[in-house]
Design a protein that fits this description.
heterodimer, A: alpha/beta, 7-stranded mixed sheet, 5-stranded mixed sheet, 12 strands, globular, B: alpha/beta, 6-stranded parallel sheet, two-stranded antiparallel sheet, 10 strands, about 10% strand, disordered N terminus, binds thiamine diphosphate
Chain lengths: ~325, ~375
């Protein structure tokens, strides 16, 4: 199934399992969301559980907090990455901190789903990668999936978590297909764990979300030139599974981080610092970062130049190997 | 106010509070408060309105076609909302300032912005593409409701410049902010109302209530007719027939005059209908029934003005033919202009991020340059 369908099926299953799970957001009902991720849910679960909200992001998150205080488990959709900012205050000042302020007596099991990232030729505000803003805020868990299997299981694990979870969905991969073992089994990993998605011995490439596929393609291309690249899908950005990356870098001696979001103060920087601290003597080269530039997401006709592609990843792999 | 149930939802119909000067059948009617504001319009002005309506509809149709042919990534159609935009746009004066959403192609037309310019954002060659100060027409705003606060702040600036209530028609300035019915749910819009009210800012809030916010009908945004909201914030609100270009003109002129003279903000709810999809990537058959669209077709803004003009002998066949010919010309202009919009030079994405030099940005630009050059060098070697 596709990633979009996998999130849909995961939501459906969570709603079946727990009557307290609610889906809410703009156009999530009859329309099934602008990406059809919530397609059919309102028909089957009713308007009380799949709520077409007013067009107000702060309102969506703020009322989700209230619903959670009342014992519900809301899954709120923000229609596009670039429209999350009106809700920013509710997310970072309220959602993230209430558990702490109440010394644990309040838990807010709210999931915020955000289709994110570029590559779909959209107009402005529809292609952003705001994940670092949220990873920087304590109290939130920030995760992102890159395969249908992860989409299916991670959304359910996010809903089951008693912490607020920012669930970033790589929108340009929504239509990518893959197998999903809906009985659990092998393809289910804990929400906070990274995963080696391609073993290799010479360079570790750590990516997440939409860039995992690009990293795998780069590894494939590198293999044809006799270079053995290991690819790690981080999956969780907060907490960050540094152990998994460290373990890999100890073997390969090299690390390249890849994300669409700007490199400056991005997830790659955090990973580079931590890996350098932990295994300085295993490193054969400085950690290299591949990502977006320090500019607003550009007009779609040049987004291919903005977005890291296979060549940019390969270039970094080569530079790393050249040290 | 009469309510009728169409399909599964309640459509709030025009009631006695709806300001109208031209019925759907094209009959002139008087309004005790607003007739005066349109009284000076002669046949030539009305023909001008008609021409505007037809031309912007054609610009819109051509842009929709261009999107279908893959020349635009997206298009937000104004079909059905022409009168709301032309009526209000024509009521503005050169010194006034307009803050649009992403659908105000008709208002842009009234402000003298070349329609081709509007396509840049939708084609993906730029993120705005015009100088807002040139025609006093701000860049399109995609984040719902954000521009209402900018408009209010601009109006507060107008006040500080002493450009209200001087009695000089060329100096007194008003600001107008456009937004949809869905936008009225946003915090920003409500905060704009608060700021405008307490500062008595010269701003007109112009809501095109086209009944839908993508798939969500009015009922998902409000339980009271929108124009009534204004009174809660402390300024007047009025509902006007958004498909009646004359009434929209009159009501907007009244509101702008009021703002310019220093009497503060006003809210206009132009009651209209989005005849097409929300944008070219939307599929309205998933949420709306055809009968509703059919009902609104009967209220078409162009047909009613045409009926009035012909019946009253204010325009002849020759005029209508001339406008049609002109609309063919504009379609050609839009098409060729669109195809001629060049893709940006990749390196240009580093331009204009900051006003002053920024070392990080320069470093990244240099890297980008070198990276591209390395490919060129590689090709040389391969040859
Ligand atoms: C802050 C924000 N949230 C969500 C969106 C996505 N979106 C774009 S248009 C739209 C509906 C707007 O409805 P309305 O305000 O009634 O204006 P209309 O397009 O109908 O003229 C939505 C939800 C957005 N652009 N900005």
């Amino acid at each position: 199934m596709t990633i979009a369908k996998a999130v849909n099926s995961g939501l459906r299953r969570a709603m079946e399992d727990d009557p307290k799970v609610l889906v809410m957001g703009e156009d999530v009902g009859k329309l099934g969301g602008v990406f059809r991720v919530t397609d059919g849910l309102q028909k089957d679960f009713g308007e009380d559980r799949v709520i077409d909200t007013p067009l107000a992001e702060s309102g969506i998150v703020g009322t989700a907090i209230g619903l959670a205080l009342r014992g519900f488990r809301p899954v709120a959709e923000i229609q596009f990455d670039g429209f999350i900012y009106p809700a920013y205050d509710q997310i970072v000042s309220q959602l993230a901190k209430m558990g702490y302020r109440s010394a644990g007596s309040v838990r807010l099991p709210v999931v915020i789903r955000v289709p994110y990232g570029g590559g779909i030729g959209a107009v402005e505000h529809h292609s952003e990668s705001p994940e670092a803003y949220f990873a920087h805020t304590a109290g939130l868990r920030v995760v992102t999936c890159s395969t249908p299997a992860d989409a299916y299981w991670m959304i359910q694990d996010a809903i089951a978590s008693d912490d607020p979870v920012m669930f970033f969905e790589p929108k340009r991969r929504y239509w990518d297909k893959g197998d999903v073992d809906v009985d659990g089994g092998s393809d289910r990993a804990p929400l906070h764990r990274a995963r080696v998605v391609r073993p290799g011995s010479q360079v570790t490439v750590a990516a997440y979300g939409p860039m995992v596929k690009t990293a795998l393609q780069a590894a494939e291309a590198a293999a044809q030139e006799g270079k053995d690249v290991e690819v790690i899908d981080l999956r969780s950005l907060s907490p960050l599974d540094v152990d998994a990356v460290e373990e890999s870098v100890r073997r390969t001696g090299r690390l390249v981080t890849v994300h669409e979001a700007p490199v400056f103060l991005g997830l790659g920087a955090e990973l580079a610092a931590r890996v350098t601290e932990r295994c300085f003597y295993s490193l054969e080269a400085p950690v290299l970062r591949v990502g977006g530039f320090h500019i607003p997401y550009p007009p779609s006709r040049v987004e291919e130049e903005y977005l890291p592609d296979l060549d940019r990843v390969l270039d970094a792999v080569d530079r790393s190997l050249a040290f | 106010m009469t309510d009728s149930v169409v399909g599964t939802r309640t459509v709030r119909h025009d009631g006695p509070e709806l300001v109208q000067l031209l019925t759907p059948e094209g009959e002139r009617v008087e309004h005790p408060e607003y007739s005066d504001y349109a009284a000076h319009l002669g046949p030539e002005d009305l023909r001008g309105f008609y021409r505007d309506l037809v031309l912007v509809r054609r610009v819109d149709a051509e842009a929709t076609a261009l999107q279908r042919q893959g020349e635009l990534g997206l298009w937000a159609s104004l079909l059905g909302q022409e009168a709301a935009q032309i009526g209000s746009g024509r009521a503005t004066r050169p010194q006034d300032y307009v803050f649009p959403t992403y659908r105000e192609h008709g208002v842009a037309w009234c402000r003298g912005v070349d329609p081709v310019t509007l396509l840049g954002l939708y084609r993906g060659v730029n993120l705005g593409g015009w100088d807002p100060h040139q025609n006093h027409f701000q860049l399109y705003t995609i984040v719902i409701g954000a521009q209402t606060l900018h408009a209010t702040g601009y109006a507060m600036g107008v006040q500080r410049d002493g450009a209200v209530g001087t009695g000089d028609p060329d100096r007194d300035t008003a600001v107008i902010a456009y937004f949809g019915d869905g936008a009225t749910s946003q915090g920003d819009v409500n905060e704009a109302f608060v700021f405008a009210a307490v500062t008595n800012a010269p701003v007109v809030f112009f809501c095109q209530n086209n009944q839908w916010a993508i798939s969500e009908p009015n009922e998902r945004q409000t339980r009271v007719p929108l124009y009534q909201r204004a009174s809660g914030f402390g300024f007047p609100g009025v509902r006007v027939d958004g498909n009646d270009v004359l009434a929209v003109y009159a009501v907007t002129k009244a509101a702008l005059d009021r703002a310019r003279s220093g009497d503060g903000p006003m809210f206009i709810e132009a009651f209209t209908y989005r005849m097409g999809a929300h944008t070219t990537s939307d599929d309205p058959t998933r949420y709306r029934i055809a009968a509703e669209v059919e009902e609104w077709k009967l209220k078409d803004p162009i047909a009613r003005l045409k009926a009035y003009l012909s019946r009253g002998g204010h325009a002849d066949a020759e005029f209508f033919d001339a406008v049609d010919a002109e609309s063919d010309e504009i379609a050609t202009h839009v098409r060729s202009g669109c195809l001629a919009l060049p893709d940006p030079e990749p390196e240009s994405m580093f331009d204009h991020v900051y006003a002053d030099p920024h070392p990080l940005l320069e470093e990244e630009r240099e890297w980008f340059r070198g990276y591209h050059a390395s490919f060129a060098a590689g090709e040389e070697v391969a040859r």
